[in-house]
Amino acid sequence: MKLHALYIPARLETLKCVILAHGYTGEGKEMLGFARLYAEKLNYNVLIPDARGHGKSDVDYIGFGWHERHDYVKWIHFLLVQFGRQASIVLHGISMGGATVLMTSGESLPKQVKAIISDCAYTSAADVLKHQLKELYQLPAFPFLPLASLYTKIRSGNSFYEASAIKQVKHSTVPILLIHGEEDTFVPFNMVYQLHQAGKNMNELLVIPGAEHGMSFSLSRDLYEEKMRSFLGKYVR
């Protein structure tokens, strides 16, 4: 398997790095707005992977963050090879990318991972697919979700029910900032409170009034950036 990523150096030489995670069916270049903010204003080196099954990366299936969490651990170690043990690394994801970085948070991460920002993430693959079956197609979860999950288990080795961001957040020791738009109906807004309650005391929450799915940064850029600066300033030196 080969995974592809874009790399953008910071404006000034630094050991601060961020790995950005895009959403479902997207690709890394969709995160260039965030990359510009990190590289030019916050002075971070930026790595933007194409998740497996997306963009220029290999594999013909999408793991909803569960398979991808292992890939992000490898990208973290890739940056450590490039920048050494003094590096400070942040993870920042949107939608499926937000769930991916939360699922990564529960892994055994090196101490150089200082903070995680997750925007409009779902609690688990099963939860969000159940919601979308009802909202988009007026279909019940049973028997469609169990059958699709079984097929996925056969194809990829993991079921939808294993892909839980909540479970991983409970094990995380990395500070997490959770962001969600109040008008999000694609990934239900109340999921952010479930994720927040699952985490430890270092977790913070930002709700953006009026924002639909994935639109928080575009709708309230100043507020979003201010909260990012405040949060990252506590943990990244």
Could you walk me through the main structural features you see in this protein, from its secondary elements to its overall organization?
This protein is α/β, with parallel strands linked by helices and 237 residues long. Helices cover 41% and strands 17% of the residues. It is built from 9 helices and 7 strands; from the N terminus they run E-E-H-E-H-E-H-E-H-H-H-E-H-E-H-H. It has helices spanning 32-41, 68-83, 96-105, 125-137, 144-156, 165-171, 191-198, 216-219, 221-235; strands spanning 5-8, 16-21, 45-49, 88-94, 113-119, 176-181, 204-208. A 7-stranded mixed β-sheet has the order 1-3-2-4-5-6-7, sandwiched between helices. Helix 7 (191-198) links the parallel strand 6 (176-181) and strand 7. Helix 2 (68-83) packs across helix 3 and helix 3 packs parallel to helix 6.
